[in-house]
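Researcher: Quick one. two chains, 421 residues in total.
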Amino acid sequence: MFLPGIGYAGGYSIGIVHRVAAVLFIGIPVLNSLSEPNKALGFVKETLIWSKDDLKWFKAAPNYYFGGPEEKMLPQGHVNTGQRMWQLVVMGTGLVFLVTGAILWFFKWSVPLNVYEWLLFVHGIAFIIVFAMFLVHFYLGVIHPRFRESLRSMLDGKVSPSYAKQHYRKWYDKITNNHRNQ
Amino acid sequence: MLFGIIILIGLGAIIATSYGIGQTALTNEELTQIKDTCVDCHNVSHNTDDAAVHQAHPDMECSTCHVGTTQTDPGTCADCHSVPDYTNAADVHQDHQNVQCSTCHIGSSDLGQVTESCERCHEEPESPDEEDVHQIHEDLNCSICHVSATQIDTAACANCHSVPVYTSAGDVHQIHANEDCVTCHSDASGLETADKAHDILQWTGIGIVAAAAAGLVLNYAVARVRLAGRKGGDGKTND
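Model:
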């Protein structure tokens, strides 16, 4: 859709792919949330509740991600501020996709033309934001030299103690304290 | 006998004179005198817009057009000028059958120039935006697009602009084949508002993503060098 040359020529086929993707994009999180509502609620809370530490993380992040010393980065929980920002973008743009997409799909004849055009525009802007953020997310998870282990951890959901201590110190301390107290 | 011949010649001369035989055409000066005679009683508005139609027919007697009482009969225009097709529903003349020709054709020798005269009866469109479709076409006659009274006929757009392929299933133009172009292209510059909006969004997106990608490549290069240079540091062990 956003690739030059595809435009109208591929509009119909892309429209079908787009709708199938939309159903999956909305349907899977909804089913997952229904199957594990507590986890879903925890995920939403974790994403929406921010603190001053997050602001400090943003200040320290540029140097950290450009290879600066580890000790200058604030200790993080099991999901760091950047990852929570990604979650927030996915949730926010997901909501935009859901609302604007539903109107564009099911109520296109019921809204004024200028509203329809604005919905299209907002829908497109949301995609640009989430896609740019996806690139950053993918890069940090797969390519960035500081986070090599994160890719492997996606396979079994585990990271090494040293990696956890290094990047998710709050979480590491919490786990190890719990372990000592048992 | 001679008397009889004289009588016949006299009768012939009277008959010939009554049918105009042997008469020469009136000179402009004589016409002016006749018209001046009309003006003695009738108020001819030479100083208003209507004067233009008079100026376009300087050599004609008033009564050539003014065959009735005070107004011009459209039928008299048709004596000399070709009559438009009133039966064509898409023709602007069909909607103005009861309007005198000179109401729109206010006098130019080019009868197609009716732009200003439309605004004598119809409200001038508001076009504050330079991208407004009226603003873009301000030099055109209204009737070029408004070929019928109330609607802009899509076909009128196609007279100048290339039309999209309506037969492609799923194409936005095929879906809206029964809509006027201006329903969507309401403030078009070159009829590409929708395309332009799409292009802007497309190239903005490509620009942002390209900038992000370039930033990430730069980040990778810098981070790799800095982490490699920090021997024994965090970059060497688990990163």
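DSSP finds eight helices and no strands in chain A.
Researcher: Thanks, that's what I needed.
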